[in-house]
Amino acid sequence: METSTNGSNGQSQAADPHVQEVIRSAERELHELLERRAELMKRIGTIKQTLAGLANIFGDGVLSDQLLSLLDRKSASRQPGFTRACRVVLMDAKKPLGARLVCQALQQRFPDVLERHKDPIASVTTVLNRLADYGEARCSLDASGRRVWKWIAEPGDSADLLLAGDDQFFKQQAGKRQ
Predict the structure, then answer these.
(1) I need a surface site. Which of 55, 66, 110, 161 has the fewest CB within 10 A?
(2) Looking at the domain assignment, is residue 114 inside a domain?
(3) What is the pLDDT of residues 113-137, one digit of tens each?
(4) How confident is the model over 27-39, as a mean pLDDT?
C-alpha cells in the first residue's frame, strides 16, 4: 500500500486510489499536451520560414504589417529582445550556426542587444539551449565537434522547398487542400 505525507500536518496516511488515478490522468494529459506543443512549435517554425522565404523572394511588401511584426521583420522603435533577436538570426540562417556565429550575426543586425550582456557567447548559448528545449531549434555537433543550432522546420517542409525554388511546394499545398 502506498503512503504519503500530509503536507499540512506531516502525518503519514494511505494514498487514496482516486487521488492516484487523478494524478495518473493529469500526467498523461500533460505528456500529450507537451507533445502537441512541440508539434505546434515545429509547424509554426515551418510557416514562419515559408513566409520569410516569400518575403526574401518578393519583398517585405507582400506581407501585412501584422505578419512583418510576427516575423520580426518590421522595423520598430526599439530593438527586439535578446531571445527574439536570436530567433530571427537562427530562422534566417541557411545552415546550422554555432554560438560565435550567432553573436556575429547579432552584432551586425542588432548591435544594441549585445551591449547589455557581459558575456555574449554565454548568453547566446543559454538562449539557443532554451530554444532547443522549447522545440524551436535543434542542437547537433558540427564536423569539428562543436555545438551548432538550426531552426527546426519539419522534414521536407515547405520553406526548404520554397527556398530551393522548387514549385513542388505549391503542388504539395494544393494536394493538402483537396
Answers:
(1) 66
(2) yes
(3) 888 889 999 999 999 999 998 888 9
(4) 91
The residue range of the domain holding 68 is 43-177
- Set of cell numbers at residue 22: 487523478
Mean pLDDT of 48-74: 82
Quick check: pTM over 0.85? Answer: no
Evaluate whether residue 2 is within a structural domain: no
DSSP string, 25-60: HHHHHHHHHHHHHHHHHHHHHHHHHHHHHHHHHH-G
Q: Would residue 27 count as lying in a domain?
A: no
**Cell output for 3:** 503512503
Distance CA 69, CA 84 (A): 11
Residue 117 buriedness (CB in 10 A; 0-12 / 13-18 / 19+): middle
| CATH code, domain with 94 | 1.10.10.10
